[in-house]
Amino acid sequence: MFAALSWLLASATALHGPVPTRRTRRACIARASPVFARLGELLGNNDPLQALDTIKPALSYGGWQQDAAEVEDGLVRCGPSVALSLLAKMRRKQRLHGGDRSDVELQVLDEVKQGLTYDGWEKDVGRVERDWVGGWNTNIHAVREKMRRKQRLHEGDRSDVVLQVLDGVKQGLAYESWEQDVRTVERDWAEGEDAEEIQEMLAKMRRKQRLHEGDRSDVVLQVLDDATQRLTYGGWEVDVARVERDWTDGWDTDIQEVVKKMRRRQLEYAFSKLSTDGQSS
User: Fold this and answer.
1) Residues of 128-153 as b/e, b for ≥16 C-beta within 10 angstroms?
2) Domain range holding 242?
3) What is the dihedral of CA 57, 58, 62, 68, to 10 degrees?
4) How many structural domains comprise the chain?
5) Does residue 1 lie in a domain region?
6) In the predicted model, what is the mean pLDDT of the chain?
C-alpha cells in the first residue's frame, strides 16, 4: 500500500513538478496577479516554452536572458499561468526597448511629458512605464492630472481656487513650521487629495496661528484656561498641551470630561502631598 502511494506521488511530481511550499505559493500569486488581463498578447499560444523560443530571436533589451530563465523557473514552480504572465511582461519590455509607444497608456504619457520640467518628472514617467511593463493598472489619466498639477506649481501657476485660498491663508502665518504646512498642502493638491481634506488642513493652520498669537477666544480653550489656573500636579503642562494639540487638529474634544480628569489628578496629588507632609512632620 505504501509503495503504491509512493509511486503515485512520484508520478504526480514528474508530471506537474515539485509540490510548491507555502512560501512558493505566495511568490507565485505575487508574480501572476498583475498580468492575467494581458495574456491575450501571446496570441493564443498556451505553451510557455514554445512561446519563449518564438520570441527569443526578437529580444534585445538588457537582461532578457535572466527574464527567460525566470519564465522557465516560473513554469516549474508555479505553472503555465505564471510563465505566460512573465512572457507577456517580456514582450512589453521589448516593445518599450524598441520604441513602440503604440499602447494608449504610453501615448497619453508621451503627450503629457512634452511640457514637463519640474524636479522629478523623469522619475514619475519611469514609474508609469514600469507599471505598464509589469502589467499593473497605471491609472494613467489620474497620473496625467497629477503630473500637470506638479508642473503648474513648478511654473508658479496659482490660479486654482485651492491654491488661491492657501495663498490668502499663508499671508498672516507666523507660527513655527508654517512653511512646512504650506508645502504639505501644495503637495496634497498636486497629488489630487480630496478638497475637503485640504480645507481641513487650512482650518488647522488657522487654528495654529490663533494659538501662536495667544487668541484663546474659543470655548474649549476658555474652559481649559479656567481649569489650569489651579493645577500643580506633575505633568499638567503635558495634559494641557495635549488638549491644545487636539483642538488644533480639529478633534472633537469633550473638554468638560477632560477637565474633570485633570481636577481628579490634582486632588490625588494634593492628598498625596498632605499625606507626605504629615509623615515628615
Assistant:
1) bbebbbebeebebeebbebbebbbbb
2) 216-276
3) -60
4) 4
5) no
6) 86
